[in-house]
Design goal:
By secondary structure, the chain is of the alpha/beta class. The protein contains 16 helices and 12 strands. It has 2 domains: 41-144 and 349-362, Rossmann fold (3-Layer(aba) Sandwich), CATH 3.40.50; 147-347, Rossmann fold (3-Layer(aba) Sandwich). Helix 3 (49-61) packs across helix 4 (75-81).
Length: 363
């Protein structure tokens, strides 16, 4: 979805954007709603010569100077479509951790790539060892956020908290992510049992998200990845078995990010393997202190004791220990929340990120 946001921002700057994406997806729905041209290729296999011809014809007929790929699997079709065409640039953005890919086939495909962007300085240092590209082609490009759009909404806060029977004096700790074992949502949920008994009476947990979706599914089967759906049922069973239905709410996928973040007082991010999290930036922009796992990109986003707290990975008791001071101290929440927003304003303003991207496109 961040790639979609970038397309919309580029279009606002006067650039023409053509988006190739999976049909009937949330991506396509978002792009069409924002008047971005959307196209579907004949096939979404890694190697499809009909799709390669489609892309090749499109970029030549429309004289497109830059092809920017936002999902590493799609680099195959884009690279082949641009093979022998040195007039146009091929760029790949990487948003998550990657395995080593240095075999002869990947060396062939990646030899056509002009540049790779990541949002993680740590990833940039090791990517040339994992992918067959020289370090000179790897660039750091920070995420951008339109910070002025992130304002707490009192009306939505009240409506959402009322929906879940949350009282005005209750404190809400929330998480927003895909329901996936790697996101460690269970660690957050289990931390409730480690809170002091008197604290539990005034605390509610919100978990916003759904299991990871499959790329495709038949009408009769579940649209979710089996292991993620199983993990979701484990969460539900844990909540039921411990009689926490009135304390912990699984809210499912919600498009109203601003509304649900407004309903929270503390944001929790237990994922153990993130390059750099967009939703953490969103929470920080909303002046929420962030309690995050001390791993990956979280270490570059959350300053322990300044904009939030870092806890030991996979340690529910430590999550409870790091959340507790915020539950009891409204002034601390405000202080660290203000520091969190300042970090986003200083380092991740959308206009600055788009300026940097355009410099890469033009250079």
């Amino acid at each position: 979805m961040y790639a979609c946001t970038v397309m919309v921002e580029l279009q606002k700057r006067g650039w023409k954007v053509w988006a190739i994406c999976y049909p009937n997806s949330k991506v396509e729905e978002f792009l069409r709603a924002n008047n971005v041209r959307v196209m579907n290729v004949p096939s979404y296999m890694k190697l499809s010569f009909s799709s390669v011809r489609f892309i090749r014809r499109l970029i030549r007929e429309e004289d497109i100077p830059v092809v920017h790929v936002h999902f590493h699997r799609d680099i195959w079709q884009a690279s082949l479509a641009l093979w022998g065409d040195h007039k146009r640039k091929l760029i790949l953005s990487i948003y998550m951790g990657v395995n080593k890919k240095r075999d002869i086939f990947h060396r062939f495909i990646y030899s056509r790539v002009d540049a790779i962007f990541t949002s993680s300085i740590a990833m940039n240092k090791v990517l040339h060892e994992r992918y067959p590209v020289p370090a000179s082609k790897i660039h750091f490009l920070p995420y951008g956020r339109t910070v002025e759009d992130y304002q707490r909404d009192a009306v939505k806060r009240l409506a959402i908290r009322t929906k879940y029977n949350i009282q005005p004096d209750d404190v809400v700790a929330g998480a927003m992510m895909r329901i996936d074992p790697g996101k460690c949502v269970m660690d957050f949920v289990q931390s409730f049992l480690y809170l002091r008994e008197e604290t539990r009476k005034k605390v509610k947990y919100l978990v916003i998200g759904e299991p990871t979706r499959k790329r495709a599914s038949s009408p009769k089967e579940s649209p979710f990845e089996p292991h993620c759906e199983e993990y979701y049922f484990e969460l539900k069973n844990f909540i039921k078995d411990n009689n926490l239905e009135n304390n912990i709410y699984l809210c499912g996928f919600q498009s109203d990010i601003i509304g649900y973040l407004s309903a929270m007082d503390v944001f929790v991010f237990p994922s153990r393997d993130e390059l750099f999290s967009l939703v953490v930036l969103d929470a920080m922009a909303m002046k929420l202190p962030v309690v995050a796992a001390a791993a990956g990109g979280n270490l570059d986003q959350v300053t322990d004791g300044v904009s939030g707290r870092l806890f030991t990975v996979n340690d529910s008791k430590d999550i409870a220990d790091k959340i507790s001071p915020y539950l009891d101290d409204a002034e601390l929440r405000i202080k660290h929340g203000n520091s969190a927003r300042e970090f986003v304003v200083k380092n991740h303003a959308m206009n600055v990120a788009i300026d940097q991207l355009l410099e890469f496109y033009k250079s």
